[in-house]
Amino acid sequence: MFAENGYNKSVTEKGVFLLPVEVMVKRRFAAAGGFTLVELLVVITIIGLLVALLLPAVQGAREAARCVQCKNNIKQMATACLLHEARHGFLPTGGWAWGFAGEPDRGFDKRQPSGWYYNILPFIEQEDLHEMGANGTNRTEGKKRVGFPVSVFHCPDRRSAVTYPYTHGSSYFNIDKPSIIGRSDYAANSGDGNTNTYWKGPGTLAQGDNMSEADWEKQAGTSDDATGVIFRRSMCRFAHITDGESCTYLLGEKYIDPDHYYDGTDCDNDQGWDLGYDYDINRWTCNNNACQPKMDIRGQGGCHVCFGSAHPAGFHMAFCDGSVRRMSYEIDLQTNRYLGNRKDGQAVDLSQVW
């Protein structure tokens, strides 16, 4: 083949014939050209199938990552509780009642009206937050503290660690009423006994100090009827956990209705992390269906007392030895009850638990 005067000469078996150069160019571009419509549709279909196949895998990987983060949060809080016990000789106290926020000037024992979240702050690198309101400034500074979101107190499968509106109709006894609140997604094990937390508290710190032990024992959740490890005014030592640390719940994920993750209208989710003994930060393993752990379900609002989570595969619980395990929602009700009681003397077949 050769060119002459704008034409290509093609040699064939039958002789030589001439083709315009532009025709040859078009043929070459056609030979090396793009897709046909059918081919394009086939490619789009294949891409769609690949996306459909990969999307569940990506979603599964994200859910697995969120579960790992949630488990790590629980591990960090459980470790903080053990560090608290090593320093003070007992696990974090459960505080007085839901009418009280933390008091930096009142230590870590029965005189501290706030609960376990507040008392582990120094052991999760939040000592400055724990001390906010010290030296007699708690009325105003405590209001700021309760509105502070702490990331480790939140499960990433449920809600972000941001401030939420404080919609509760009542105010705290010892701090000014806040407009925003920091919430939480976990709860301590208060046992398999009385779950009543309706008592707001003694009214003032002085009144609480003046109450006798007999007066305190009249309130549900105190040492007479509390079988867990963190309850009203608790100072639980490892020696008190006679069933063994590896067979007793310490803390874990709590059940919340997804319809009310953010608005705080349910009484088990209407407060924040900085308060005393209450549904928001304490849960139970009583011997009835109200204490059966479950996955978060819409339309189930109220004052829930059970553990649970937003994870479809199960809920995470820390034990008093510091270990964290994923538990099945199908756990036997009686087994769950035994794990919540530190001193019932009942053997638990751990092979059926996880």
Low-pLDDT runs of 5+ residues are none
Structural class label: alpha+beta
Strand order of the largest sheet: 8-6-7-11-12
Helix content: 25-40%
Which radius of gyration do the C-alpha atoms yield? 31 Å
Note the total helix count: 8
How many domains is the backbone divided into?
Answer: 1
Share of β-strand residues:
5-15%
Shape: globular
Count of β-strands:
12
- How far apart lie the N and C ends? 79 Å
- Calculate the mean pLDDT score and round it: 90
| Sheet with the most strands, sense and barrel status | 5 strands, mixed
One letter per element, helices H and strands E, the order comes to: EEEHHHHHEEEHHEEEEEEH
Report on the architecture of this protein.
Strand 2 (7-12) and strand 3 (15-20) form a beta hairpin. The protein starts with a strand and ends in a 14-residue tail after the last helix. It has 354 residues and is α+β, with helices and mostly antiparallel strands. The relative contact order is 0.14. Helices cover 29% and strands 12% of the residues. It contains 8 helices and 12 strands. It has helices at 21-31, 37-88, 116-120, 127-131, 138-146, 205-210, 213-217, 333-340, and strands spanning 2-4, 7-12, 15-20, 164-165, 180-181, 186-189, 249-253, 282-283, 294-295, 308-309, 315-319, 324-327. The model has no long low-confidence stretch (mean pLDDT 90). It has one domain (72-352). The strands form 4 sheets. The chain has a 5-stranded mixed β-sheet with strand order 8-6-7-11-12, with helices on one face.
